[in-house]
Amino acid sequence: MKTVRFISYKVAASLPIDKIAAFLKTNMKFTWNEYILVSSNQLDAILKYHSEDKAVYLFKYGCISFVNLTDNEIYSFLKYIESITSKINYNLIHKYHLSHNINIDDNLSCILWENSNTKVDYNKNTDHILAIILARSTQMYFFETQLNTMLDNSEKFLISLQKGRLPLFTRKSYKIMAKILKFEFESMSCIRIFEYPVFDKHSMKSNEVYDALSEYYELSDRFNIMQSKIKELRKIVGLYSSLSHSQTENRLLMFEIFLLSLFSLSHII
After folding, report:
1. Could you tell me if 32 and 59 are in contact, meaning their C-beta atoms sit under 8 angstroms apart?
2. Rounded CA gap, 20 and 15, in Å?
3. Helix (H, G, I), strand (E, B) or coil at 81
4. 103: enclosing H helix or E strand
5. Which helix (H) or strand (E) holds 8?
């Protein structure tokens, strides 16, 4: 029995994998699911010793999936990438990560997760699929956390506005709207990372494995929930805009009343 250990980290907002690929003299995979696979001699050179059955997948959207690397090896690899890009965010690493293990028997069969009733044949495509799934789930967790925080803060601020607490409305509302719009732009730019990946033509089993793991990590359901919450944020942006417009009109009206009162006062004097 052999255990293959996977762990994925969110290490940066994004990774310049074209620059990393050029430095490592390797190729990126696919068009929108761009990632780099580092293994064999390349990984040996980074770790400075032979690294059998180990691999690293670097994704453009800032996640890295490690296969069979120890904690010390992961740290060494991250420091190496940091020397190339200067973009590793250790605060993200500690907060956003996901691990998964599979056990392979002597017949090269494995179950994809604990207590699963389905056995599949293990091959290197299995590593490939799990690396993608874990990275996507980790990235989704990152988005989910940001989205929930923004919704909470926005709803609290709207409650204050509805109660008439408007002293710092303009500055706060523009700040919150800017954060919402920035998040929406970043999330939309990464939407296509959740598209169905392209596997080898001869490996129909890969699609089945991907579907099973995708369902296990609830990627589709979580994605739909995210889309629904993003729509709520859009509504909030619209409400902020209308409140801002209303407040501006009220200020103009008060200013006009003030001017009219001055005009009346001058006649009395």
Report:
1. no
2. 8
3. helix
4. strand 97-104
5. strand 2-10
User: Which of 79, 95, 123 is the last residue before a domain boundary?
Assistant: 123
* Residues 254 and 152 placed together within one structural domain of the fold: yes
pTM score, whole prediction: 0.81
Structural domain harbouring 184:
130-268
- With CA atoms as reference, report the closest residue to 192 among 76, 19, 60: 60
Domain count, the chain: 2
Q: Which residues contact 263 (CB under 8 A, 6 or more apart)?
A: none
Label residue 187 exposed, middle or buried (CB < 10 Å: 0-12, 13-18, 19+): middle
Last residue of a domain, one of 123, 151, 183: 123
Q: Does residue 177 share a domain with residue 106?
A: no
Q: pLDDT band at residue 89, thresholds of 50, 70 and 90?
A: very high
Give the pLDDT of residue 266: 43
